[in-house]
Each structure stands twice: as structure tokens, then as C-alpha cells.
Design brief:
With 376 residues, this protein is α/β, with parallel strands linked by helices. It is built from 13 helices and eight strands. Strands 2-1-3-8-7-4-5-6 form an eight-stranded parallel sheet, sandwiched between helices. It is globular, with a radius of gyration of 19 Å. The two termini are 29 Å apart. The structure holds zinc ion. Zinc ion (ZN) binds next to loops.
């Protein structure tokens, strides 16, 4: 086993705005949690510092003109076309330093892919990655540069088969749109239904087009989905598809926003299903590039990502500063006294019952329509 935690202090250098829900400093908290709980100081683990990604590599996925607008926006130059590309909105504000920040995030994900491809690593985490809503020539949903899309393009160029598993609570629309008719990428997204949440897409009937038909899997979940329903849907769909597709690399977005404490999402889960999913993905994939994705309750999210990292490295978090004067804990980890996984959250109410029935319907639909096309 050889794994890399890609991290830079520069991730936290800029802010999207004091009222913006995306907080860049969460990456620093994950790093500190992992350090404190003994999850970095192991012989097989390297901490790798990323560099910003160059224009040429950004253009593996993005349109040149859009990239030039991004660069201009970051130098406080206003151009009317920016508005048409989703730049300068409340959701995707522009400011000096933006280009440095987002190209560094993309550079971190890209570096991760290089380590997996050329340097014998089998696991990489970039917590500051997974900007799955950005399109080839537009920004949306707090995403400007689609690091996952760039890396998928890069891996396809090298002739690899890629599984993309998106556990962020929002549908991975940017990836779906870009690779909808491509059967070299198996795309699976579990998310809150587009009936109640941005980006209002990701229904089970969107199963891909042309050669890619069957290779685009959406599992929309209703509000009130608890751990039991989520794990039912995950275990029915993800392992069989991963096994029959047999990817060379799995790109997984561990969005921490499916947690019941997330302020933007309406699912009713603990971090338990994400931990179970991390275990299953690690067991079923030869190489994993793990990305953070969304998560707007900062401490809950940081704790989820530290746990995902621990699980994929087969480590049990241990508080190396336990009892030390000056040792400090963060938010919910302080409440529970440890970094341990949440107890499963199993709810018995009408929302859950409805969510379970709907998940069963979706699972049956996917098994009937997409499974035969992928050979599962
Ligand atoms: Zn999200």
C-alpha cells in the first residue's frame, strides 16, 4: 500500500466571501484532524504538496475562452461575457486570487492522478477537490474548474477505464453532461432528488446515450433518507456495477453534505453510510482517487473526510495528544470525545418510509434498464 494526502496551506489563503457557504479553511481542519489522530505519520503515507495546474492541462476539459475569462476575472477585469458563463454571481463570485485558488485545487487532483498512474500509489485523497458542477465553459454551484472532469479526460487519454462514484448530496451534473455518451467512464451518482435540490437533475431515467447508454447511473434519494435506505441503494447498485465494469481507477467524491447536520441538504443520514461506502470502494478498486466535494457544516465535514482517509488506509484514529495540555478538539468530535464513526442513524417516520419505497423503485429500474447494458 502506498498512499498520498495532497495538501497545501494555500488552499485556505482565499475566501469566496464571508457569507458564502463554501469555506476554504475546511481543508486545513481535515489536515489538522488527520495529523492529530495519527493518520498521516505512517511509512506508506506521503503528504504531497500540489502546484497550480497550467492552462494546457486545464484545457483538457475546459474551453480556452472560458479559461481566459476566469483569468481576467481574477485580475479584477470585467467583461460582459463573464455573466453568461456564470461568473460574478452570489454563487460563483469573482475576486483577486480566484484563479490561483481554483487552479491549485485542480492541480492537486491532477497530481493525485499522476501519482496513481506513474508512481505506484494506490490511494490519494485531495479534500479540496470534486468541483463536479462546473461545465466546459461555465461556472455553477460554487464550482469554476471541474478538476474531476480534467482528470477523467487525462486518464482516458492514457487508455484507462474510469469509474466515477459521486456520493456528494448534489447530482454530479458537470460530469454527467461531459461524459454522457462515453462507455469508458462508468458514472454513478447518489444524491438528494432533483425534485427538491439543486442542480434539479440526476433522475434515474438519465442513463446515458449512444455507446454510453447504461454507463450513467443516477440514484436520486428523497428527503428524509436515513442510513438504512442509503446503504440499501448503495449496496444494491454500486458493488455489482463496479465488479462487472472492473475499472483501472476509481474516482470517488465523498461529499460530506449528505449528513443530517448539513445546512444545504435535506437527507437524514449520519456519516456511517459514507464510511461504509469508502470501505466498499477501497475493497473493489485497484486504485482510488478520493476527492472531498461539498460539505457545509465544516466540523461535521472535516470529521467525515478524516474518517474516510482512515478507513481507506485501514487505520483506526487514535488521539495522540490525549491528556496533553493544550490538546484541542474540533466541534462534534469534541462532543463525542473521539473521531469514531457515528452510530447508524435509522429513522422510523413517514418520510423515511416513503424514501425507502422510492429507493426500491429506483433500484429496480436501474437493475432492469442499465445492468444488462453494463453486463452486471
Ligand atoms: Zn454537494
Amino acid at each position: 500500500m502506498k498512499s498520498a494526502f495532497v495538501y497545501s496551506e494555500e488552499f485556505s489563503r482565499y475566501e469566496l466571501g464571508p457569507l458564502h457557504p463554501f469555506k476554504t479553511w475546511r481543508a486545513k481542519i481535515v489536515y489538522e484532524l488527520c495529523h492529530r489522530y495519527g493518520l498521516l505519520d505512517r511509512p506508506w503515507i506521503d503528504i504531497v504538496k500540489p502546484e497550480p495546474l497550467c492552462f494546457e492541462k486545464l484545457a483538457l476539459f475546459h474551453n480556452d475562452e472560458y479559461l481566459r475569462l476566469l483569468e481576467a476575472a481574477s485580475s479584477n477585469i470585467f467583461r460582459f461575457e463573464m455573466l453568461g458563463c456564470g461568473l460574478g454571481t452570489d454563487e460563483n463570485p469573482v475576486f483577486e486570487g480566484l484563479y490561483d485558488l481554483i487552479t491549485l485545487a485542480a492541480g492537486a487532483t491532477y497530481r493525485g492522478a499522476e501519482l496513481l498512474l506513474h508512481e505506484d500509489y494506490n490511494l490519494v485523497l485531495n479534500v479540496f477537490g470534486g468541483f463536479h458542477h462546473a461545465g466546459r465553459s461555465h461556472a455553477e454551484g460554487f464550482c469554476y474548474i471541474n478538476d474531476a472532469g480534467i482528470v477523467i479526460s487525462y486518464l482516458l487519454q492514457h487508455g484507462l477505464k474510469v469509474a466515477y462514484i459521486d456520493l456528494d448530496a448534489h447530482h454530479g451534473n458537470g460530469i454527467q453532461d461531459a461524459f454522457y455518451s462515453d462507455n469508458r467512464v462508468l458514472k454513478i451518482s447518489l444524491h438528494e432528488s432533483g425534485k427538491s435540490l439543486y442542480p434539479w437533475s440526476g433522475f434515474e431515467s438519465e442513463i446515458g446515450d449512444g455507446d454510453g447508454k447504461g454507463y450513467n447511473i443516477n440514484i436520486p434519494l428523497l428527503q428524509g433518507t436515513d442510513d438504512e435506505t442509503y446503504l440499501y441503494a448503495f449496496s444494491q447498485i454500486v458493488p455489482p456495477l463496479l465488479q462487472s465494469f472492473a475499472p483501472d481507477i476509481t474516482l470517488a467524491i465523498f461529499g460530506a453534505d449528505a449528513h443530517h447536520a448539513d445546512p444545504l441538504v435535506h437527507l437524514n443520514m449520519s456519516n456511517h453510510p459514507i464510511c461504509k461506502a469508502a470501505q466498499a470502494i477501497a475493497d473493489l478498486s485497484p486504485r482510488v482517487l478520493a476527492l472531498g466535494g461539498g460539505g457545509y457544516n465544516i466540523y461535521v465535514s472535516a470529521r467525515t473526510w478524516a474518517l474516510v482517509w482512515a478507513i481507506m488506509n485501514r487505520l483506526t484514529p487514535e488521539d495522540i495528544f490525549l491528556g496533553a495540555v493544550g490538546g484541542m478538539m474540533y466541534g462534534p468530535e469534541a462532543e463525542s470525545g473521539s473521531l469514531a464513526e457515528d452510530h447508524p442513524r435509522i429513522v422510523q417516520d413517514s418520510a423515511k418510509e416513503q424514501a425507502q419505497r422510492d429507493a426500491e423503485r429506483v433500484v429496480n429500474y436501474i437493475k432492469k434498464t442499465a445492468f444488462p447494458l453494463v453486463g452486471a
